[in-house]
Design goal:
single chain; mainly alpha; two-stranded antiparallel ribbon; 2 strands
Length: 81
């Protein structure tokens, strides 16, 4: 008998997560909006929770995008769709 799947380990969820991964600054990243959607919360609430709990995250866990990076990601996402 196999263990039950969690909602995040179903094939559809794994594919969705894989499509959310982008490469920026030679790192694989997932945007806050994609993580918020994954957890079923608004992006604003997700970011508030992260700010309240910064001690739980490694120093390199997050960074702010530059305007150029943001534009580049928008272009990548539009190309994928």
């Amino acid at each position: 008998m196999s263990a039950p799947s969690s909602p995040l380990t179903t094939p559809a969820a794994v594919e969705s997560i894989s499509l959310s991964i982008a490469t920026l600054r030679d790192q694989r990243v997932i945007l806050d909006s994609d993580l918020a959607a994954l957890y079923g919360v608004e992006t604003k609430r997700f970011n508030e929770a992260v700010k309240r709990n910064t001690a739980r995250f490694p120093a390199d866990f997050m960074f702010q995008l530059t305007a150029d990076e943001s534009d580049s990601l928008r272009s990548q996402i539009a190309t994928l769709k």
